[in-house]
């Protein structure tokens, strides 16, 4: 069992920097596209054998130090009664706009939320030689899709909802916090060895609004989970003073922000994860090596997990991903073992 990833999350500076890639299973892989030619995305998430198969695909190609369950942040909402399509991102059939709409959301018991995910995790734990990360979407990011209805640059429908319907918004965040805490606990019970909460759209809020709605819900989710926890908020440097109060082992740092500055804010005891710009994978190998080297040098003396600063893009060349993984192994061994 390769435990580098879990050891890094305990705050250790270890002999080689572990790495995994956000969205490492997905459309940039031809073998993923081959599976998707036969089944739609939701069927794939809900079929444990297939979901386990695509989770393993990137690990067969690259020397990665963690696996992440194949699913989507929106799948647990199916059990709450939300009608969803993927095109390719999530599209909610009836976006929530009032307290009535929010009251209709059902929050089920842990084992009823997404039972297919628990089966997928059990299959994976039998196969894997690296730790398995479970995950969920943070309430703000789920609310972004639930209220706006689909992806958006600035989620302005959600933002106006938060201002105009604070009572409905608080009820929504409370329900999503309970649902998400239960969902992550079920993943841990099934065998997930660490969890990451994706707050991809955290950056759309001011610090004031983030503190009012998003932060208390995130704190509630993390309060009772007994495995290492990572919180990834995107485009969120202005929120770091607030995020610092979240009790987790690791913080995911996005590509727009500086690892040095993050280190100053979060301190030396925490593990930082990130933050290569996903677009660098589409540049040439010289550029890839240079930037991987930069990140590893910056973080050489503190606890770090190498990752991209957001999900890998569908047009990232597989050969460049493979080259990045080799570079990180080679350079981090050189730096840390001298
Ligand atoms: O056509 C397809 O095959 C669907 C493409 C796809 C895939 C491969 C979607 C739709 N989701 C996923 C898998 C997925 N999504 C994973 C597991 C893969 C892995 O990490 O190896 C994870 C962790 C997610 C999480 C997710 N979904 C996030 C948070 C992370 C991030 O990248 O910010 C978000 C914001 C989503 C929403 C979503 N689902 C799918 C897409 C294309 C999107 C984002 C774009 C949009 O809002 O339209």
Which distinct ligands sit in these coordinates? coproporphyrinogen I
What is the ordering of alpha helices and beta strands? HHHHEEEHHHEHHHEHEHEHEHEH
Task: Give the distance, in angstroms, between the N- and C-terminal Cα atoms.
Answer: 25 Å
| Unreliable runs | none
Mean of pLDDT: 97
Assign the structural class, choosing from mainly alpha, mainly beta, alpha/beta, alpha+beta, or little secondary structure. Answer: alpha/beta
Mind summarizing the main beta sheet?
A: 7 strands, parallel
Q: What characteristic shape results from the CA principal axes?
A: globular
State the helicity in percent bands. 40-55%
Description:
It is a single chain. With 338 residues, the chain is an alpha/beta fold. Helix 7 packs parallel to helix 10, helix 8 packs across helix 9 (156-164) and helix 10 runs parallel beside helix 11. The chain is built from 15 helices and nine strands. It has helices at 4-9, 30-38, 41-46, 48-61, 99-103, 110-113, 115-127, 139-148, 156-164, 166-190, 207-222, 240-243, 259-266, 285-298, 318-337, and strands at 67-68, 84-86, 90-92, 132-137, 194-199, 229-233, 250-253, 271-276, 304-308. The strands form two sheets. It has a seven-stranded parallel beta sheet. Helix 12 (240-243) links the parallel strand 6 and strand 7 (250-253). The site of coproporphyrinogen I has 23 residues, from loops.
